[in-house]
Amino acid sequence: MNFKVMLRSANFFKSLLWARILNRRVPLRVGLQLTKYCNMRCSYCYADFERYKTAKELSTDEIFNVVDELHALGCRWIWFLGGEPMMREDFGRIIDYVHSKGMFCDMNSNGILINKDNLSTVKKLDGVAISIDGNEETNDFYRGKGMYQKAIKAVELLVANGVSVRIHSILTKKTAAKLDQVAERSRQLGVTFNYCEVLKKETAGDDILSDKEHEDFYKRYLDYKKRGAPIMHSIESIEYMLKWPKTNGTVIYHEECSGYDTKDYVPCLSGDLLCFVDLDGGIYACNGTWGDGLNYKEVGFKKAWDYLAQRKCVGCRCVGMTSLHSIFGLSEKSVMHALLSIAKIK
Ligand code: SF4
Ligand code: SF4
User: Fold this and answer.
1) Banded model confidence at residue 322, pLDDT cuts 50, 70, 90
2) Within 13 Å of residue 204, how many CA atoms lie on the same side as its CB?
């Protein structure tokens, strides 16, 4: 394992332990939207490109300032999002700056712009998730003709150069049916993979799984995991998808939480230990609650962060967030799973 990655991971876990022991709210892991630009237009994208037509891109120094402010609030892990982070010419300098503060950093990317010329930049990251939605047919349906092969080439290049990569697929009716192919391709490539729910469900229309289809999918996902498929999520977090207690709803709100048992879902820690910062300056509990928060440019970072203590929801049926909340809640099984995954980072 890379010694520097180990140090940054240890730094993060030490801060997490202190936050939990002292029962403090700290934005330990922040999803940071680096850019409004993207070379794709996926139909289900969570980013509001219309609104961004007038939004101003942050300069390098402004990003450094955001990193400083987040670090001062206790952040130890920055997760770069876009748009497409690789569209920023200063991306390498930004990664260096985050690392200079001892923070762990990874990114989600569509992979299309990754090539030999910018490989040295990507190699600086502690992890990379490449979005590939199912197999070639389903991926190119959502992402455009020829995109699957380009994304796979990026994965191959990164693996060949020792970068820790995972394949990140959205979960729709079309992609759910390709689980066997995603698992097999990931195994051949030597990478992990995960499925994740579509954030803006209305954008995927009839492609969103019904409750029954959702349950069937996660039964198969769990079965694949138990049989050794390289799925990133822990068995524990997948089992929570099968225990979800609310019918006809994927979010449990404060006012109704007494009706549900927390052994059936993982209490949300977004807004307590995690948050999302959009490129306009909005700070939200997660990218699913986009718009429900204050803007640091208007009220400052501390006030915008403090506002999130009033979050309206207490849990949601999302395997990615459930997985994170289990780790941040120091569930023994999930922390062990996360540590073993980190240990594999080269
Ligand atoms: S690649 Fe990502 S940011 Fe770009 S349009 Fe697709 S989902 Fe949105
Ligand atoms: S429960 Fe938490 S992770 Fe889920 S939508 Fe609400 S704030 Fe986001």
Assistant:
1) very high
2) 20
What pLDDT is attached to residue 346? Answer: 60
* Number of residues written out for the chain: 346
Domain map (residue ranges) of the chain: 3-210+225-232+276-309
Answer CATH for 3-210+225-232+276-309 from 3.40.1050.10, 3.20.20.70, 3.40.50.12780, 3.40.50.620: 3.20.20.70
Confidence check: pLDDT of 342 > 80 = no
Q: What is the DSSP letter of 292?
A: S
The pTM of this model reads 0.95
Mutate to test the pocket of ligand 1, among 45, 169, 199 (most ligand atoms within 8 A of CB): 45
Ligand 1 centre distance from Cα of residue 40 (Å):
6
CA-nearest residue, atom 5 of ligand 1? 41
Gap between the Cα atoms of 83 and 131, Å rounded: 12
